[in-house]
Amino acid sequence: MKTLIKLIFFLALYLITGNKIGAQTAENDAKITIIQAPAIDTLLQHHIAYNAAKQTQPGYRVQVYFGNKRIKADDAKAEFLKKYPDEDVYLIYQQPNYKVRVGDFKSRLDAYKFYRKIHPDFGATFIVRDDIKKRQN
After folding, report:
1. 9 vs 106, which has greater pLDDT?
2. Neighbouring-strand partners of residue 62
3. pLDDT for residue 74
4. Which of 18, 44, 65, 114 is least surrounded, with the fewest CB atoms within 10 Å of its CB?
5. CB 61 within 8 A of CB 111
6. 33 secondary structure, DSSP code
7. Residue 15 — very low, low, confident or very high, per pLDDT cuts 50/70/90?
């Protein structure tokens, strides 16, 4: 019964399409024309220029301190800079808390490698998504 239904389906399809099933041939090749408003090109150019001018991009950092005491945040930042002077450190205030985040990593894997390196010195660390500085090529 299933075979009969399949046969009827393909026969009907064959009759409807006129045997144009399968690979394209030269006679049924077609060109597609896209008609769009000129404002779309203008918006696209503005978007490209905006992204080129931005100084940040999505990425990851390692957070080494989180709390509501500014003095402790400054101490954590100073302690980190003593041990890792070549790394970038950011002190962020989001009311009512201070955060000390380090590094500018494009991938979570790079952030994890650094996390493994500093975790013995700074126990309460974790990886967070953040806007990082763009690196100049």
Report:
1. 106
2. 102, 127
3. 94
4. 18
5. yes
6. -
7. low
Contacts of 98 (CB under 8 A, 6+ apart): 65, 66, 67, 68, 69, 70, 72, 73, 91, 92
Around 44, how many Cα atoms within 13 Å sit in the side-chain half-sphere? Answer: 6
User: What's the CA gap between 121 and 118, in Å, rounded?
Assistant: 6
Taken as a whole, the chain contains a residue count of 137
List domains and CATH numbers for the chain: 56-133 (3.30.70.1070)
- Report CA 97 to chain centroid distance, whole Å: 26
Helix, strand or coil for residue 134? coil
One-letter amino acid at 26 equals A
Alpha helices by DSSP H, listed for 69-137, are: 70-83, 108-118
d(C-alpha 137, C-alpha 57), whole Å: 14
For the record, the structure tokens of 114 come out as 């650094």
pTM confidence score = 0.62
- 32 pLDDT tier (thresholds 50, 70, 90): confident
Token reading at 130: 């953040």
Q: Is the pLDDT of residue 49 over 60?
A: yes
